[in-house]
Write a structure and sequence with these properties.
Blueprint lengths: L18 E5 L4 H12 L3 E6 L5 H13 L4 E5 L5 H15 L4 E4 L14 H29 L2 E6 L12 H21 L4 E8 L8 H4 L4 H9 L12 H8 L10 E4 L7
Parallel strand pairs: 1-2, 1-4, 2-3, 4-5, 5-6, 6-7
Helix pairs in contact: 1-2, 1-8, 3-4, 4-5
């Protein structure tokens, strides 16, 4: 029996010495995925938005290195195309290849559709759609040249179903889901597979204000999520590792729901 404090054994995913890039890696889902990839044997490139949370990304770097893996921090504003390209360029300069890209970074506002400003709309689409496309484009060029790779987008259950006060975010995530299909149609025959992992609201620091609304958590877990609990960041790790591995070699342009059953209603 595995001790509760023991590290997960992800070695069977076959990711030893793979080179993985994770955007938005400093906290929440991105952090859990980056650490899980390292536990599975991969070396990491951690894309970090300029500004706060440098202590957090450096702590993650230390944790990964303590596992015997390499971890490179690259300051990246995913809203800028040149930064997305530089992220991949620096990865290749350091490691010589890119095997896995996890497009996790995103942004969303909350409010009625009638109140959405042009600035909020552009910010959501730049961080959630534009960044994912151009990071995938840059990684795709490298992966096609090297003969294969895996690109995993972090989508959302709201990319599949509608939800109040999330109109722009839901539109953006739906675009991300469809992007995986479109890119796979062009690249899959050359071994570059693009898929999406779509969680429901996940219990992270950035979602704390939503989860603490009176009655919201009870409503969601009792009425909307058949599994009966919220996602935790660690719940996304297995899905990402699977789609990063050779076990998913015939899964192409797919959206894997990790939402406790929210979207089966």
């Amino acid at each position: 029996m595995q001790r509760e404090d023991a590290l997960p054994d992800y070695s069977s995913f076959g990711l030893k010495d793979k080179i993985a890039v994770v955007t938005g890696a400093s906290q929440g889902i991105g952090r859990a995925i980056a650490l899980g990839l390292a536990q599975a044997g991969a070396h990491l490139v951690l894309a970090k938005y300029p500004g706060p949370r440098m202590d957090e990304i450096k702590e993650l770097q230390r944790e990964i290195e303590a596992l015997g893996r390499q971890a490179l921090i690259v300051i990246t504003d995913v809203n800028k195309v040149e930064d997305c390209r530089a992220l991949i360029d620096q990865t290749v300069a350091k490691f010589g290849r890119v095997d896995i890209l996890v497009n996790n970074a995103s942004w969303t506002g909350t409010g009625d559709a009638l109140d959405v400003t042009e600035e909020e709309y552009d910010k959501t689409f730049d961080a959630t759609v534009k960044s994912v496309f151009f990071a995938s484009q840059a990684a795709g060029r490298v992966m096609l040249a090297q003969g294969g790779g895996r690109i995993i987008h972090i989508g959302s259950n709201f990319g599949e179903i509608a939800f109040k006060k999330r109109a722009v975010y839901a539109m953006a995530k739906a675009a991300v889901h469809h992007m995986a299909k479109a890119l796979s149609l062009e690249w899959a025959h050359q071994g570059v597979l693009v898929n999406t992992v779509a969680p429901c609201i996940t219990e992270t620091e950035s979602r704390k204000n939503i989860l603490e609304r009176p009655g919201y958590k009870e409503w969601a877990t009792q009425e909307m999520i058949p599994r009966g609990r919220w996602n935790q960041p660690a719940d996304l790790v297995g899905a990402v590792l699977f789609l990063s591995s050779d076990f998913s070699d015939m899964i192409v342009g797919h959206t894997l729901m990790v939402d406790g059953g929210w979207t089966i209603h």
